[in-house]
């Protein structure tokens, strides 16, 4: 809020208080005629305050005069604005936003009653309504975070109590595709974009940073797997994401593993994933993205085509290289690549975990001299020793900018998984909370040993701002999520960004960069 505005809104609120005080005083007088401004040249509509103030609408439940409610409203508002000025506390700014909104909505209704129902105008009521509208407009413009904070809070409640229980009655893959296609529609609809932009995204200099030469408006990204058909590039920036990974995209199309491909484990705050790189293939994705403009950095996750039986290790490498080549030759304006070496649900005995296999893959991709940074999507099931050995190999390849920790949880015995829930699924691996602990341990390990060499992206089990901040403080420059958004709703992204600003302020940090690795 601009400081010079404070005396203005305070003055307006005091004028509203005096106006409502006068109307209340008039109400309790025996002679109920209010001395309205009278001008014979004006229509009668403007000259009879009494018609409004003596109408049945002027008292609530037949006893409480609206003027008195107005007096209480302006009294509280004046006090709250004063407290906001004196204490600088967020609570009072949130209250101001809420009360000015309620005041404006109520005034809208009262103006409707005067003009349409009673057909007479009371100048004193009109003045009160005008003040309410001006106060709301000022609050709307200058209390942006507080306005969005309320929307995020109410949106979260609606999602968790109404939308999610309904969605969770329906097959998860059906809902996933429905949500993705709805997102694609909204992203292509200019009025919808304008409305969502007013409601959600949080922009703040504290959250901005440049990583690997790429500008990020905030550190929260959508991780690979949700937008595997590139539906969401236009909607994600306006719901608040700082970046997005599309894919995993494979060179050839694959319809996905036999169902079930997705399942829900609400007690474990997790999803069962058995997609096996369901992908329309690199050509289709390129066709969709060619020459498209993106508001946020977009990454393409590349993995080897699944579903081709008897593919050899060498053929897998050639297949991955072919997909990279297609994107490099295209006009897709992606900012980075992810190389997914850790998908657990693939056919065949191909693995890039043995160090020689990893070296062969990286050498082949390295020969492409890619123009954009590459991040390796790492597994979380390997021991510290095995992970360090893999990082050592990866560190030798200069084209690799960073690593992402990490992918899904393979271990069905993980204590974060509810035993009864896991039994429901005979296939697949697990996202969400069961990935969090190991992901955090590996972020810390990588930061300690390779913090200067690699940019680290933290991924796994982020459900709120504390989870995201913890990963950043352990060494992640950026974070990604999917499952948290499915359980908490799409407003989670804006909520994390909003609350991250507070956490940085509380820790005395000027920018998100200053928080990276401070707990290590
Ligand atoms: C439905 C779904 C599909 C996924 N598909 C991929 C994928 O294609 N490529 C990949 O690298 N990771 C994939 N993942 C893993 C996520 O990118 C992420 O690493 C993991 O879910 C942990 O993050 P989360 O707890 O925030 O979901 C998938 C996850 C989910 C939930």
Based on the model shown, name its key terms.
15 strands, binds flavin mononucleotide, alpha/beta, de novo design (two linked rop proteins), 18 helices, 2 domains, about 525 residues, TIM Barrel
| Structural class category | alpha/beta
- Low-confidence stretches are none
What count of helical segments does DSSP give? 18
| Overall 3D form | elongated
Please outline what is shown here.
The protein is elongated and about 95 Å long. Helix 16 links the parallel strand 14 and strand 15.
Descriptive notes:
The chain has two domains: 5-142, Up-down Bundle (de novo design (two linked rop proteins)), CATH 1.20.1440; 167-515, Aldolase class I (TIM Barrel), CATH 3.20.20. The protein has 18 helices and 15 strands. The protein has helices at residues 5-27, 49-53, 66-87, 90-118, 123-142, 144-167, 172-187, 190-199, 236-239, 282-289, 313-329, 355-366, 384-395, 419-423, 433-450, 465-473, 483-488, 492-506; strands at residues 59-60, 64-65, 209-211, 214-216, 220-222, 243-250, 262-265, 270-273, 298-303, 336-340, 374-378, 400-405, 429-430, 455-459, 478-481. It has an eight-stranded parallel β-barrel with strand order 5-6-9-10-11-12-14-15, surrounded by four helices. Helix 1 (5-27) runs antiparallel to helix 3, helix 13 crosses helix 15 and helix 16 crosses helix 18. The chain starts with a helix and ends in a 14-residue tail after the last helix. The mean pLDDT is 92. The chain binds flavin mononucleotide.
């Amino acid at each position: 809020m601009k400081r010079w505005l404070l005396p203005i809104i305070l003055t307006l609120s005091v004028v509203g208080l005096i106006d409502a005080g006068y109307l209340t005083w008039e109400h309790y007088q025996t002679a109920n005629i209010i001395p309205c401004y009278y001008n014979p040249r004006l229509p009668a509509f403007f000259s009879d305050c009494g018609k409004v103030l003596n109408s049945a609408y002027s008292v609530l439940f037949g006893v409480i005069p609206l003027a008195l409610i107005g007096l209480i409203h302006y009294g509280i508002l004046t006090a709250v604005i004063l407290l906001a000025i004196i204490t600088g506390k967020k609570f009072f700014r949130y209250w101001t936003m809420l009360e000015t909104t309620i005041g404006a909505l109520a005034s809208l209704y009262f103006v409707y009653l005067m003009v349409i129902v009673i057909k007479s105008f009371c100048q004193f009521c009109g003045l009160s309504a005008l003040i309410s509208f001006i106060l709301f407009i000022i609050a709307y413009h200058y209390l942006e975070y507080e306005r969005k904070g309320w929307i995020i809070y109410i949106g979260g409640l609606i999602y968790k109590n109404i939308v999610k229980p309904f969605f969770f009655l329906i097959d998860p893959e059906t809902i996933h595709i429905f949500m993705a296609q709805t997102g694609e529609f909204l992203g292509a609809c200019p009025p919808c974009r304008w409305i969502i932009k007013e409601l959600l995204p949080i922009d703040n200099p504290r959250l901005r940073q440049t990583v690997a030469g790429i500008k990020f408006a905030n550190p929260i990204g959508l991780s690979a797997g949700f937008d595997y058909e590139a539906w969401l590039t236009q909607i994600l920036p306006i719901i608040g994401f700082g970046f997005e990974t599309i894919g995993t995209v494979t060179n050839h199309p694959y319809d996905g593993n036999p169902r079930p491909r997705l399942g829900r484990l609400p007690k474990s705050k997790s999803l069962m994933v058995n997609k096996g790189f369901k992908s329309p293939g690199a050509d289709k994705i390129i066709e969709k993205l060619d020459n498209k403009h993106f508001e946020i950095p977009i990454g393409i996750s590349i993995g080897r085509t699944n579903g081709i039986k008897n593919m050899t290790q060498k053929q897998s490498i050639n297949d991955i290289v072919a997909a990279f080549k297609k994107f490099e030759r295209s006009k897709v304006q992606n900012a980075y690549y992810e190389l997914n070496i850790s998908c657990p649900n693939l056919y065949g005995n191909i693995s890039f975990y043995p160090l020689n296999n990893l070296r062969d893959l990286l050498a082949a991709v390295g020969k492409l001299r890619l123009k954009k940074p590459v991040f390796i999507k790492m597994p979380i099931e390997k021991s510290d020793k095995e992970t360090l050995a893999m990082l050592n190999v990866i560190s030798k390849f200069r084209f690799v900018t960073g690593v992402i920790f990490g992918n899904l949880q393979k271990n069905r015995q993980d204590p974060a998984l509810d035993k009864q829930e896991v039994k429901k699924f005979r296939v697949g691996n697990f996202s969400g909370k069961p990935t969090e602990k190991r992901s955090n341990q590996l972020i810390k390990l990588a930061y300690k040993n390779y913090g200067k060499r690699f940019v680290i992206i933290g991924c796994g089990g982020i459900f709120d701002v504390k989870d995201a901040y913890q990963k950043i403080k352990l060494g992640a420059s950026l974070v990604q999520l999917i499952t948290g958004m499915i359980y908490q709703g799409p407003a989670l992204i804006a909520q994390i960004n909003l609350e991250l600003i507070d956490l940085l302020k509380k820790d005395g940090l000027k920018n998100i960069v200053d928080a990276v690795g401070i707990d290590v």
